[in-house]
Amino acid sequence: MIKSWMVIAAIGTLVAGLGSALTGGDIRWFNRLQRPRWLTFERAIPIIWTVIFICGGWSAYLVWEADPGSQLTWVLMVFYLVLEIVTISYTPVMCKLRSLTVGTIIGATGGLLSYLLAISVWPISTWAVVLLIPYMIWSPIGTYTTWAMVPLNPEDR
After folding, report:
1. SS3 for 4?
2. Are 112 and 32 in contact (CB under 8 A)?
3. Percent with pLDDT over 70 in the chain
4. The whole model's pTM is what?
């Protein structure tokens, strides 16, 4: 029998893989951009996001297991999926459009959605909310970093 955590992990991996595939060579544009001097932690960003996605999947698992298959649980699973799609779309959409402003908007949207999701799952599982905290902390940092890159790269607004 397929376990719920397996399905959640598979869907998360599929969405992340699609995002990576859609980025392709466009990432070269982003890699050539100027960064703020204080951005000393850029190498850690993939690790940070890996932890965030694992925590998000675990949070979704806790919500699912609290009331498997109910209408509310399905709605919340769609909410988790939308949050991941928005998050994963940051790189391919920003790079395809070559716009840091678009990246900032996508980042801010993900941050807002993470707070709304946390509020939505609070009555179901406090631990599910705790597992969303890394996203809620990191999203404003990542969004601010993208926003801070705009004046350093005026041709890529």
Report:
1. helix
2. no
3. 100
4. 0.92
